[in-house]
Amino acid sequence: MTLIQLEYLVAVDTYRHFATAAENCFVTQPTLSMQLQKLEEELGVQLFDRSRVPVRPTEIGKEIIAQARVVLAESKKIQELVQNQKKELSGELRIGVIPTLAPYLMPLFITSFLEKYPQVRVVVQELLTNEIVSKLNHELLDVGLLVTPLENKTIKELPLFYEAFMVYVNPQHSLAKQKEIDPTELLPDDLWVLNEGHCFRSQVLNICNRGGSMGGSEGANLDYRSGSLETLKRIVETQHGLTLLPELSVLEMPEEKKRLIRPFSEPQPLREVSLVVHKSFLKKKLIEALQKEIVDSLPATIRNRKKQHVVEVGEV
After folding, report:
1. Could you say which residues form the signal peptide (predicted)?
2. CA distance 137 to 154
């Protein structure tokens, strides 16, 4: 049994396809298949049910794969010990970030991070929360940027900051006359929300105590289901109603659009933004450097805000 065989084993479990696993391991499919066959012969068990599409691990295969992931993670810690002795950080850092954070948070820190650590290659993917968690568990990402708490036993959460929810309201709406808005004043027929699957949607509905059945503003002929906060903003501006936005998304707005923003009355509902990693995560120094760079890049009002009235994420 070799570490290479264990890597091939884990790759097939991750991608559930021999050709894709081979491609990601930078070997030919016959080479990968031969090594796995040797491993099965040595162990005397069948690790995968090859008659199914996609390929699935057998029951004993699941247990062996779980242990293989532990062995590979421990072996990588040896490489990390060596890396930690070097003065300059290097290597690849794979980041998953949710869509309601990516366009507003990434520009604040990514340039300065790359300038400070030129030997680091950063790979960023915009993904939904459940996709980030799945990729962390399958070692396809090193770290996620998303909203917590998740209450997931496989994930370690490193809170970064707390940002307020803001109301973005059509100028003709009655609430546009108010300086602050109470959550109880939000009506479901007026409210535009993101598609299902976005944690921001579930938090908005939790603020409004409406459950999870809404798709868009239901009180008009237009029912627009969007995955983009920017699209919801345009609908509010040109149609009717209101939507909720994260605080970071309104910082760079033109002044004429800022006039459509209303804060919630105290206590303001907040969302907790965190770095999340797998419990057995590696690349600790890289992730610590990323954490510091993000916090240092934030406006002081957000960076110094204390945890209070955090809205539950709910099902995503």
Report:
1. none
2. 7
Give the chain's length.
316
3-state DSSP call for residue 106?
helix
Q: 304 CB contacts (<8 Å, ≥6 apart)? A: none
List of residues 6+ apart from 53 with CB closer than 8 A = none
Q: What is the pLDDT of residues 93-110, one digit of tens each?
A: 999 999 999 999 999 999
User: CA 25, CA 140: separation in Å to the nearest integer?
Assistant: 13
* Residues 176, 227 contacting (CB under 8 angstroms): no
- Give the rounded distance of the alpha carbon of 291 from its chain centre: 15
Task: Please state, in angstroms and rounded to a whole number, the distance separating the CA atoms of residues 186 and 189.
Answer: 9
Q: Mind listing the pLDDT tens digit for each residue in 27-86? A: 999 999 999 999 999 999 999 988 888 899 999 999 999 899 888 888 877 777 776 666
CB-based contact 161:299 (threshold 8 Å): no
Same domain, 234 and 259: yes
Q: For strand 191-192 and strand 242-246, is the pairing parallel, antiparallel, or unpaired?
A: parallel
Q: Is 26 left (phi over 0), alpha (psi -120 to 50) or beta?
A: left
Long-range contacts, 43-51 (Cβ 8 Å, 24+): 43/1, 47/9, 48/12
CATH code of the domain in which 75 resides: 1.10.10.10
**Best CA proximity match to 71, nearest among 283, 287, 280:** 280
Residues 19 and 65 in one domain: yes
Is residue 217 in some structural domain?
yes
Are 148 and 117 found together in one domain?
yes
